[in-house]
């Protein structure tokens, strides 16, 4: 579904990504792993159109999204849940969810009951301001907001960061459910090794902005992967 080929990305004169390639298919989780500062977040920003890239291509179902803006990427079916969540703190939970309507035809601008099935706490707190939620609740809200847009590709940047263990478990269950339904390609950037290892079907390890390992789960063992992502 999503194919990234030989992607280069710079911040000023510093090259952050060097010919990075990956693919993400519907019904599968592609985990992008590595230590801090290797370019994982930059890769998601490039795919989602939030940061320009110089070289390489990004394609979704054969349609080029190379150098697409964030708006164009979102309208094409790419949803991005950023590190830090970026919910609107003064807007209610319902209003935060409604911001996902921007990518939808007017007739489809409703919050599906399924959102509250996936994240029951949001139904309980729908009139609460986003800033009043705990970190774990805000993370659930950020993922739910992305799902409102009915994406074909879901980009998740460090969804377990700063989250209590019981919420991590719930988020993992939602990701597994979305994967098993087979309709969405999921790209997961994650530092929590066991969380990513338990969910992923494909692993891409980065080091200094380059891919040092790219293999399906069946072709890489836990210890080998761990060595590549703790260099």
Features:
four-stranded antiparallel sheet; globular; alpha/beta; six-stranded mixed sheet; 231 residues; Rossmann fold
Structure description:
This protein has about 230 residues and is an alpha/beta fold. It has one domain: P-loop containing nucleotide triphosphate hydrolases (Rossmann fold), CATH 3.40.50. Helices cover about 35% and strands about 25% of the residues. It has nine helices and ten strands. The protein has helices spanning about 40-45, 70-75, 95-100, 115-120, 120-125, 135-150, 165-180, 195-200, 220-230; strands at about 1-10, 15-25, 30-35, 55-60, 65, 80, 155, 185-190, 200-205, 210-215. It has a six-stranded mixed beta sheet with strand order 6-7-8-3-9-10, sandwiched between helices. Strands 2-1-4-5 form a four-stranded antiparallel beta sheet, covered by helices on one side. The protein is globular, with a radius of gyration of 17 Å. The chain starts with a strand and ends with a helix. The model has no long low-confidence stretch (mean pLDDT about 95).
């Amino acid at each position: 579904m999503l194919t990234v080929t030989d992607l280069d990305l710079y911040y000023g004169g510093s090259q952050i990504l060097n010919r990075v390639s990956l693919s993400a298919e519907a019904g599968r989780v592609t985990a992008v792993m590595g230590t801090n500062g290797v370019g994982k977040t930059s890769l998601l920003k490039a795919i989602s159109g939030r940061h320009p890239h110089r070289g390489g291509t990004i394609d979704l179902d054969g349609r080029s999204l190379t150098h697409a803006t964030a708006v164009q990427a979102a309208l094409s079916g790419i949803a991005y849940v950023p590190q830090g969540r970026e919910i609107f703190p003064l807007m209610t939970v319902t209003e935060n969810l409604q911001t996902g309507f921007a990518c939808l035809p007017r007739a489809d601008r409703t919050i599906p009951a399924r959102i509250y099935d996936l994240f029951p706490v949001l139904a309980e707190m729908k009139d609460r301001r986003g800033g009043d939620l705990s970190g774990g609740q805000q993370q659930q809200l950020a993922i739910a907001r992305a799902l409102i847009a009915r994406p074909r590709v879901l980009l998740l940047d460090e969804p377990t960061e700063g989250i209590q263990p019981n919420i991590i478990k719930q988020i993992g269950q939602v990701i597994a459910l979305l994967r098993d339904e087979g309709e969405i390609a999921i790209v997961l950037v994650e530092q929590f090794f066991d969380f990513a290892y338990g969910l992923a079907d494909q692993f891409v390890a980065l080091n200094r902005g380059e891919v040092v390992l790219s293999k399906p789960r069946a072709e890489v063992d836990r210890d080998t992967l761990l060595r590549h992502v703790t260099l």
